[in-house]
Specification:
By secondary structure, the chain is an all-alpha fold. Helix 1 crosses helix 3 and helix 2 crosses helix 4. The longest helix has 29 residues. The chain starts with a helix and ends in a 7-residue tail after the last helix.
């Protein structure tokens, strides 16, 4: 699991932007869940599950802006 998280953290910017687009943003939700399990942070698993449910509506925009501005996900991840 840590390899999966490291791969996402080290992914090129263009790939992170693609993953932040609507519908595809579910990839970041899965990333949050896996990272939460790998680090033992239950709240991150919960946020990942919520991201799956609500991400398609508006949360993808938060991911997209965050990736473009800071090159990583918001503080939640």
């Amino acid at each position: 699991m840590k390899g999966f998280v490291k791969w996402f953290d080290d992914a090129p910017l263009w790939l992170k932007v693609v993953f932040a687009l609507p519908v595809i943003d579910i990839v970041w939700a899965v990333y949050r869940i896996v990272k939460g399990v790998a680090t033992g942070k239950i709240w991150l698993v919960v946020v990942g599950i919520l991201w799956i449910v609500l991400g398609w509506a508006i949360l993808w925009l938060i991911d997209l802006v965050s990736v473009l501005v800071t090159r990583k996900l918001p503080v939640l991840a």
